[in-house]
Design goal:
With about 325 residues, this protein is of the alpha+beta class. About 20% of the residues lie in helices and about 20% in strands.
């Protein structure tokens, strides 16, 4: 798998490690990413997909899971890079809260941070529609947006481990997330290498994109991990990553080809009382956020959401009804 920038991406069957295991955290520390085996069971993964369809159909725009003709952009929620749905209440949908409520998901983060006192992000999902039906649904090449999600100056060192729970079968032909193994080890030198570039990046913005010719992108072969439904990919926010669409789909493909629940959990002690209060309000007002739990960025105020046409046509979900376990992840 390669394209015009000649950065080879290998679809690889990497180790699938148990949630909460010593082996999983050692692998993450060494390679900057790890695949957690069966964070959700396959049945839980498919239930989540069903709940995502329920969310989409209840937006009130006429989406019908059985009819791809109803999945066009005038009905589908506004998407960011990688076909990520960041807003319209997705962060508090039944699907996202179901995933957060599975103890095996939290178990992986608890081992990383060595604490059970964790807070969850209120972020969204990535849903890929079959581009054989509409070529415009194909997501952009990962080669054009290799990035990290942590500001090299304002957030030195290890701050965050991001995650996604894979919900459908993966393949090289479909595509998926891509990581550069061990690239988190370059992080501390980035301020010296990109002084001018970083001078233009506000200290509160964590998305840093690399030039296509940066040698770090070929320091190790880029990896797209094979994952089973229910597996969870975790990566250090300092690890260079992206998502990349595949090359072809089977004839007649007419269903979602990729579904991933984005999730991040961080220690509660990192979060101020001011942010905790904003998080409580976010649940009450069904506000989605980014992956950072110790800061508060309202994803509903992303420029692409504010600039979207007819954004008031979407019917947002009601305030979530949560059990005590789920509530403990708020504040």
């Amino acid at each position: 798998m390669a394209d015009e920038f000649n950065i080879e991406i290998e679809y690889r069957h990497v180790p699938r490690l148990n949630s909460g295991s010593e082996e999983s955290t050692h692998y993450l520390d060494e390679y900057g990413y790890v695949v957690i085996k069966n964070a959700l069971t396959a049945e839980e993964a498919y239930k989540t997909v069903d709940l995502l369809w329920e969310y989409l159909e209840e937006l009130g725009t006429g989406i019908d899971r059985t009819d791809p003709n109803t999945w066009e952009d005038d009905r589908w929620p506004t998407c960011a890079h990688g076909a990520i749905l960041p807003s319209y209440g997705i962060g508090h949908s039944k699907a996202q809260w179901f995933v957060r409520g599975v103890p095996n998901v939290k178990k992986a983060f608890a081992k990383i941070w060595e604490t059970e006192e964790l807070l969850t992000s209120f972020d969204g999902v990535s849903l890929w529609r079959p581009w054989n039906i509409n070529p415009d649904w194909k997501t952009e090449s990962g080669q054009s947006w290799f990035h990290i999600d942590q500001h090299p100056i304002s957030k030195p060192g290890k701050h965050c481990v991001q995650g996604l729970v894979n919900l459908l079968p993966t393949s090289e032909q479909i595509g998926g997330n891509v990581v550069i193994p061990k690239s988190h080890k370059f992080f501390e030198n980035i301020p010296n290498e990109y002084e001018e570039r970083l001078a233009r990046l506000p200290l509160n913005i964590d998305h840093f994109r690399f030039p296509n010719d940066d040698p770090k992108l070929t320091s190790e072969k880029a990896v797209m991990c094979h994952m089973e439904p229910g597996d969870m990919l975790l990566w250090d926010s300092r690890t260079i990553h992206c998502s990349n669409s595949g090359s072809k789909l089977a004839d007649g493909t007419n269903s979602l080809i990729r579904a991933a629940s984005l999730i991040c959990m961080m220690p509660k002690y990192l979060t101020s009382e001011d942010v905790l209060e904003k998080r409580r309000e976010a649940v009450d007002k069904v506000i989605s956020t980014t992956n950072w739990t110790n800061g508060f960025r309202n994803a509903d105020e992303f420029p692409l959401i504010l600039e979207a046409n007819d954004r008031d046509k979407y019917k947002w979900p009601e305030k979530p009804i949560l059990n005590d376990y789920q509530k403990s992840l708020i504040d």
